[in-house]
Write a structure and sequence with these properties.
Blueprint (H helix, E strand, L loop, with lengths): L3 E5 L4 H13 L4 E8 L2 E9 L14 E3 L4 H14 L26 H5 L14 H5 L1 H9 L18 H13 L3 H13 L3 E3 L9 E2 L19 H7 L11 H5 L7 E3 L1 H12 L3 E2 L2 E2 L3 H6 L5 E4 L6 E4 L4 E2 L13 E5 L5 E5 L4 E7 L10 H17 L1
């Protein structure tokens, strides 16, 4: 029998059982799940293995590369700067980053970057991993690029560019890298085991990601001018780059965060709890409310499914995520199924991280199963 380590209160025992079942079946290799309820970690579970050979157990402090769940940390960093008055959501990006005004981008606002509506969902080709790993090059290329659609009129998921855009804004107004800002202003105060990139001292506790298949090249027959095609071609990071020294040393605020469910729940609970967690206020309630200002609501030009984008996060929508109720909920997911959800109505934060990547555009079947079990447990006790 598979052993699931950690703690869970009685009402969330079905969540533990679901994790155990997925580990037993082999659908999960290793995973962690956390549910923070108004500052109380009612679920803090982990189990399975950190490697495909099943030689290294997934431990309490195992970390994993988060893919796009990283964006929840980068968006929080931007919102902290908004709250401090260093960034204004409705001011042009070029006011903070003058070079960005090139190619007609002078009116693109900070909120457009955070809501995937800026028109910069990928880098213009040719653009390589060497370019992505070089911060000045990656930023300069975006600054010089023309948008691929009229900014503010639709969303097109900024799969790998959003971290560069947000990170450059953080550097311009704070004088610190995004990695440094997340470490000192979010992870430290909130006692959250999360980071952008990964400190070399932490490499031994990082679980290896196991992919069901590589993110492939663009299939033949697609319109080469479509946003989907251009975004895929202009987003060079693939599964084979993860868990390499260059990946871990890089600052890729859209894709190479590292953490576990407990760390992500601690970091993002500051939103669920309307700006304050672990005795630290990072956001005012008014800034938290800005997350729910709808910036785009329709079929995303890259994802191909309906998404309601707020500021920095997707908003609850039954068209987007099965099992998620409506209400004041914001969230985002990572390739393979990791997720962080912030539910302000119930003041809960749910996080799930794993190393066997599942399939699906927004979360895997496992992701949706855990969400369903969390809310069934809540409904049964309320």
């Amino acid at each position: 029998m598979v052993t699931v380590e950690g703690t869970s209160t009685a009402r969330f025992e079905p969540v533990r059982a679901a994790l155990a079942a997925h580990l037993e079946s082999g659908e999960e290799l290793g995973a962690s799940i956390a549910v923070d309820v108004d500052g109380v970690m009612e679920v803090d579970l982990w189990g399975g293995h950190a490697d495909e050979a099943r030689a290294v157990p997934w431990s309490r402090d195992t970390l994993v590369s988060l893919w796009s769940t990283t964006k929840t940390l980068s968006s929080l960093a931007a919102l902290v700067l908004v709250d401090r008055g260093a960034l204004d959501l409705h001011r042009p990006v070029a006011e903070y980053w003058p070079e960005f005004a090139a190619q007609g981008k002078q009116d693109i606002e900070v909120r457009h970057v955070l809501a995937h509506t800026s028109g910069l969902s990928g880098w213009q080709q040719p653009f390589t991993m060497d370019d992505l790993y070089d911060w000045p090059t990656a930023s300069a290329r975006l600054a010089a690029q023309a948008p691929w659609w009229k900014p503010g009129t639709a969303s097109g998921y900024h799969m790998q560019t959003q971290g560069q855009l947000v990170g450059e804004l953080v550097r311009r107004v704070s004088g610190r890298t995004l990695t440094e800002f997340v470490d000192t202003e979010i992870a430290g105060p909130l006692d959250a085991d999360v980071q952008i990139g990964a400190r070399e001292a932490d490499w031994p506790r990082i679980a290896a990601l196991v992919s069901p298949s590589q993110i492939s090249a663009v299939p033949a027959g697609l319109d080469p001018d479509a946003v989907l095609t251009r975004t895929m071609l202009g987003s060079p990071a693939r599964d084979e780059h993860v868990d390499t020294p260059r990946w871990r040393r890089a600052e890729l605020g859209a894709v190479n965060g590292h953490g576990n469910a407990r760390g992500m729940a601690r970091a993002l609970s500051v939103i669920s709890r309307r700006g304050e967690a672990n005795g630290h206020r990072l956001l005012s309630p008014d800034t938290v409310d800005k997350i729910f200002d709808v910036q785009a609501d329709g079929v995303d030009l890259f994802l191909g499914v309906p998404v309601r984008w707020g500021v920095g996060y997707a908003l609850a929508d039954p068209r987007t995520m099965p099992g998620m109720p409506t209400g004041a909920i914001c969230f985002w997911v990572g390739w393979g199924g990791s997720v962080v959800m912030m539910d302000l109505d119930r003041r809960i934060t749910f996080a799930y991280t794993m190393n066997r990547l599942g399939t699906g555009i927004l979360g895997s079947e496992r992701t949706h199963s855990y969400i369903r079990h969390v809310y069934e447990a809540l409904d049964a006790t309320n």
